[in-house]
């Protein structure tokens, strides 16, 4: 099946042609583990996961690398200034930087699993690849791309790389030059960036290493060039990240890599739009206030509902997060799970029909393969669940495929629902439910409501049905 993706580099939707037939080399910029991952970061990760699943269902082998940034990401990315985010996190949490990294990485992986994302093939940490980053800087130095700012670090001279900034409109014009009035005045050009930062003379950093230029630590951008080339080879197929990364981080990665391996280093650049709040502000860790998956859990939502919400949108459009949109997503998801449970419970499953299976399978895979139109795939899923002419057996096989493609765990949640519905309620709950029905019949709604409240508080819900009521254990 043809796969199409919007390539930020060409600003066009392009047909995907792999460098090596049947294989995809895929690098996604991962989290900086100095704080909890927020819902915006997780949105980006969910789109990465869909991209991966789309290739897997199209029969490709995926080699996915996602880095863990545990050093070198400064509070002011644009200017290579400010504090190291990890050291800042350590001071805030009263822990060592290493413990901070491990703590937030563990939290991140818990979210990752709760959102049912397939683990990357490799998840390298920047601090495990210091040698490779030093090598990268040495190569750039040998090629004449670097200069030193005494007491500060080794910098990349972007004027030596004519294609600088091609990802966002080219060269230095209209990009960062002029956009920022202030910049590190010792830099030769505003777009130049640190490859290696020196440790401050008067301060011992928790993370620092020897290098040919002195004790210090790598610039943030170095890790992604060094680790991707080491693990995926000099040229690979896809590189992704949130939309904020194209202007600086990815521009700098390209500038570091192409002088060494030749252009194009990466074939397709894919960027995911931001999760924003109601006023259109980007959700961001550095602002201090943000929502993580714990906020979703604490409000009683199944985390997978957040995944469902993200898949209702398209990766090229910003998405405004609100609790109202989560409520709507939860209702929509519940509806789908209800239908799937009914199909699983059907007594006459019928036979699986391969031709019908193929037709629906291809429609759904086509939608996702066409620039990741997940919302369209969900509309077709709704249609499928209602289709009167498709046997239950065929539908179940298709839902299994949809679960592989979209990772929404429909079958799992439907099975859980069926289990809950089949748990017999204890006698006291049944008794309360009977008394409630009697109160309702006598139009004593105050008593009926009070009883419903008690039943609810005990972990059960009452569903009124045509022939009375049903007591269901709450999830
Ligand atoms: P960070 O942990 O800040 O290094 O970011 C990890 C990933 O999340 C990167 O690909 C960012 O581009 C992405 N990201 C950061 N903020 C948002 C947001 N509000 N919406 C979507 N993606 C984001
Ligand atoms: Zn990166």
Tell me the number of strands: 16
- Provide the low-confidence segments as ranges: 172-181
Cα distance spanning the termini: 39 Å
Radius of gyration in whole Å, from Cα?
Answer: 26 Å
Mean pLDDT, all residues: 92
What is the strand content? 15-25%
Shape: globular
Tally of helical segments: 15
Ligand names: adenosine monophosphate, zinc ion
| SS-derived structural category | alpha/beta
Which sequence of strands runs across the widest sheet? Answer: 4-3-11-12
Helical content class: 40-55%
Largest sheet: 4 strands, parallel
Word description of this protein:
The chain has about 475 residues and is α/β, with parallel strands linked by helices. The protein is built from 15 helices and 16 strands. It is about 45% helix and about 15% strand. The strands form 6 sheets. A 4-stranded parallel β-sheet has the order 4-3-11-12, sandwiched between helices. A hairpin with a 4-residue loop joins β5 and β6. Bound molecules: adenosine monophosphate and zinc ion (ZN). Zinc ion binds next to loops. Adenosine monophosphate (AMP) binds next to α1 and β11.
Give a concise summary:
It contains 15 helices and 16 strands.
Walk me through the topology:
Blueprint: E1 4-7, E2 12-15, E3 23-28, H1 39-57, E4 61-66, E5 74-76, E6 81-84, H2 85-93, H3 97-114, H4 130-142, E7 146-149, E8 153-156, E9 193-198, E10 216-218, H5 220-232, E11 236-242, H6 249-261, E12 266-272, E13 275-276, H7 293-298, H8 304-311, E14 319-320, H9 323-345, H10 354-369, H11 374-386, H12 392-406, H13 410-421, H14 427-441, H15 445-457, E15 460-465, E16 468-473
Parallel strand pairs: 3-4, 3-11, 11-12, 13-14
Antiparallel strand pairs: 1-2, 5-6, 7-8, 8-9, 9-10, 15-16
Helix pairs in contact: 2-3, 4-5, 4-6, 5-6, 8-9, 9-13, 10-11, 10-12, 11-12, 14-15
The site of adenosine monophosphate has 18 residues, from helix 1 and strand 11.
């Amino acid at each position: 099946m043809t796969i199409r993706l919007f390539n930020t580099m060409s600003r066009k939707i392009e047909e995907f042609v792999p460098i090596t037939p049947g294989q995809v080399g895929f690098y996604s910029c991962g989290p900086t583990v100095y704080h909890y991952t927020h819902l915006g970061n997780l949105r980006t990760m969910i789109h990465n996961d869909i991209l991966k699943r789309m290739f897997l269902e199209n029969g490709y082998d995926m080699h996915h690398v996602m880095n863990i940034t545990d050093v070198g990401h400064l509070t002011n990315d644009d200017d290579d200034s400010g504090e190291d985010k990890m050291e800042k996190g350590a001071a805030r949490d009263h822990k060592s930087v290493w413990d901070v990294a491990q703590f937030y990485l563990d939290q991140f992986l818990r979210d990752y699993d709760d959102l049912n994302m397939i683990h990357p093939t490799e998840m390298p940490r920047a601090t495990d690849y210091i040698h490779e980053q030093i090598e990268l800087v040495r190569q750039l130095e040998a090629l004449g791309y670097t200069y030193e700012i005494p007491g500060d670090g080794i910098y990349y001279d972007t004027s030596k790389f004519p294609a600088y900034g091609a990802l966002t409109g080219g060269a230095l014009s209209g990009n960062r030059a002029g956009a920022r009035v202030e910049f590190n005045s010792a830099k030769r050009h505003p777009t130049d960036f640190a490859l290696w930062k020196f440790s401050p003379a008067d301060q011992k950093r928790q993370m620092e290493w020897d290098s040919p230029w002195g004790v210090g630590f790598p610039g943030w951008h170095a890790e992604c060039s060094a680790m991707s080339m080491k693990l995926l080879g000099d040229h690979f197929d896809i590189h992704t990240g949130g939309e904020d990364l194209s202007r600086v981080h990815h521009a700098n990665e390209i500038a570091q890599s192409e002088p060494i391996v030749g252009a194009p280093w990466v074939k397709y650049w894919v960027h995911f739009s931001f999760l924003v709040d109601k006023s259109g502000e980007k959700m961001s860790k550095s602002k201090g206030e943000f929502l993580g998956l714990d906020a979703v859990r604490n409000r009683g939502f199944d985390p997978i509902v957040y995944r469902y919400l993200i898949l209702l949108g398209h990766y090229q459009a910003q998405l405004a997060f609100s609790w109202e949109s989560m409520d709507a997503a939860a209702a929509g998801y519940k509806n789908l799970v209800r239908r799937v449970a009914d199909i699983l419970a059907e007594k006459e499953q019928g036979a699986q029909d391969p031709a019908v299976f193929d037709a629906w399978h291809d429609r759904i895979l086509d939608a996702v393969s066409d620039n990741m139109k997940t919302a369209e795939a969900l509309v077709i899923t709704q249609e499928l669940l209602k289709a009167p002419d498709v046997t239950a057996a065929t539908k179940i096989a298709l839902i299994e495929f949809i679960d592989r493609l979209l990772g929404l765990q429909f079958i799992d949640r439907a099975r859980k629902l069926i289990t809950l519905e089949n748990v017999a309620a204890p006698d006291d709950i049944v008794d309360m439910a009977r008394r409630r029905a009697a109160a309702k019949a006598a139009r004593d709604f105050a008593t009926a409501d009070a009883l419903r409240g008690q039943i609810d508080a005990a972990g059960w819900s009452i569903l009124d049905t045509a022939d009375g009521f049903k007591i269901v254990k709450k999830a």
